[in-house]
Write a structure and sequence with these properties.
transferase, 15 helices, alpha/beta, GatA, Amidase signature (AS) enzymes, binds glutamine, ATP binding, about 15% strand, nucleotide-binding, ATP-binding
Length: about 450
Amino acid sequence: AFLDRIDELNPTLNAFLHVDREGALAAARAIDERIAAGEQMGPLAGVPIGVKDNFCTVDMPTTCGSRMLEGWVPPYDSTVVRRLREAGLVIVGKTNMDEFAMGSSTETSAFGPSRNPWDTDRIPGGSGGGSSAAVAAHLVPLALGSDTGGSIRQPAAVTGTVGIKPTYGGVSRYGVVAMASSLDQPGPCARTVTDAALLHEVIAGHDDMDATSLDLDHSGLVDAAATDDLTGLRVGIVDEFRGEGYDEGVMARFDEAVRRLEALGAEVVTISCPAFTYALPAYYLIQPAELSSNLARFDGMRYGLRAGDDGTRSAEEVMSLSREAGFGKEAKRRIIIGTYALSAGYADQYYGQAQKVRTLIIEDFRAAFERCDVLVSPTTPTTAFRIGERVADPMAMYMADLCTIPSNLAGNASASFPIGLSDDGLPVGLQVIAPTMEDTRLYRVGGALE
Ligand code: GLN
């Protein structure tokens, strides 16, 4: 049924870049046989899932939304994908994304934008807009995302779905094509809080193949999602994330959600996190710096696109032509910014300063979590914008991640939950932020609100 729905709607939504109909049916049949043979399988056995196209999959291409990797089939599965297969989930295909996960709309994908099922003239968020569109349109009940600056939460907010960015290190990055390694974190996309928790429990856990992997107990997430009482929970409203630039309809739903939290027993306070004001500029130095280094491997020599190799050119010329042909405009912009920010003579002024701001943001979180158990804000200042509206203005595009970025810089757990529709009829998300390693708190709040 899901495959038929993909056939029907994907030509409009462009949520999937690759669908493996035969592979999915074969995987589903194999699981049916194991269950028929009496094997006890987990709760997600047989459930279809879409996988963002930056997770390595041995049996499907992994393009990262880039011409650079068009048609490339990895020689191994990412740890998360391996865990999905072991738990019996059925991978139906790979979902569209901004090129190498840079963007907030999927418009930087080399394979065209995905569309928001609520209004197909609008963006489904980014970079994981293929996953959010697929889940919102019921093409699959679950999907995988990766969140470097908001790419799970912002797409969830603008499509009325649930998106979780686990604590950095909670879910293995092994085999997820690196964008900005100190910020990247894989996580679940789902339609309900319990579905997200079920998937989170499957993909989380320590992995020897990821040097930054944490050994955490993730067994309480599904139980936490069943909560409907928030008595004693201290909720802090981030004072910096309101005011100018925030849609009235977004703020109206946000204020209502806060009142519902109070009605469920939570104590609400307002908390100032002054360094959050500098999170966006700090991110747009640190992220391009790490990205420029990570994307250096796409040189046309080892794998991926090779251009201009006609036997007359030097290796340097072929590298240069391959990168010219393979990368889109945003990738090039960030490679240049990142290389500049790291260059001798400028590294202290730019990269070094940004790292200091990062420390101040961590300090703000530490102080805030002495006074409250979770922080809340709107996930995004506005609802889904129109396709094309922000492509010519990178700063306007970057503003979509204003509220989500601090959690990536600090590494703590953060989520977006749907809290109704704005005056324009489009979904609004509530961002909930918990301290590092306290991911259960996200599910407790999300579950109580649902
Ligand atoms: N939109 C942000 C960026 O362009 C976040 C991307 C992400 O989380 N992958 O960098």
